[in-house]
Amino acid sequence: MSIQATTAALQPVLAQPETPAQGVQWKLDSFAGRLVEISGDESAASLSLVFRLVYEAQRRGEPVAWIGRRECVFFPPDVVRAGIDLAALPVIWVPDALAAARTADRLARSGAFGLLVVDLGSRPVLPLHAQARLAGLAGKHDTALLFLTEKGRERPSLGSLVSVRAHAARTRREGDRFRCEAQVLKDKRRGPSWGHAEMCHGPDGLR
């Protein structure tokens, strides 16, 4: 499936991470079998942090799919520079959050994906019955089911069945370098006591 970007979501390119806090790493295994929400504003580091997981999944031979909205999509050239194989990343366009949840349900039921990314945007809706189905499927197939949302850290997570909620932020350092970090606000297994940070190189539009 070809990828057409209607808006360029310029995001920092992946770089090496800093030492993870509390011994927990920002890796696919930390989120496998769980519902995960990563929130942030439209200029946050969410995409950079998510694509680190996409990159890891592809390196491990785990199929990945992206479910999103045409009006707000990642910028393909930046993703390619980050090492992502776009030919191996199917992208599915949906009109709204409910359609995204239904699509994620169908893909998760196949048991074929190690990572599913669902971009819900600034008006995220995930009814409790949809959460329950997706949580069950994620656990059954050991799939990391990751939701991207645009909102402040003070707002609650998508729902009670979300296992991990992290909030992403980005701060500029010298030149084209940015510090991308995620603070975990909710983790049902480990508690909200860990985070992740890495230094990134910004693409041309952010230099």
Q: Could you tell me how far the N terminus lies from the C terminus, measured between alpha carbons in angstroms?
A: 31 Å
Major β-sheet annotation: 8 strands, mixed
Helix/strand-derived category reads: alpha/beta
Q: How many beta-strand segments?
A: 10
Oligomer: single chain
Outline, from the CA principal axes?
Answer: globular
CATH fold group: Rossmann fold
Let me know the CATH homologous superfamily.
P-loop containing nucleotide triphosphate hydrolases
- Per CATH, the architecture is 3-Layer(aba) Sandwich
Strand order of the largest sheet: 5-3-6-7-2-8-9-10
| Poorly predicted regions | 1-16
In percent terms, what proportion of residues is strand?
25-35%
- The number of distinct helices, counting runs of at least 4 residues, comes to 5
The level 1 CATH classification is Alpha Beta
State the domain count. 1
Order of helices and strands: EHEHEEHEHEHEEEE
Mean pLDDT: 83
Computed Rg: 16 Å
How much helicity do the residues have?
25-40%
Architecture blueprint of SSEs:
Elements: E1 8-9, H1 28-31, E2 35-40, H2 46-59, E3 64-68, E4 73-74, H3 76-81, E5 91-93, H4 97-110, E6 115-121, H5 128-141, E7 144-150, E8 164-172, E9 177-187, E10 195-201
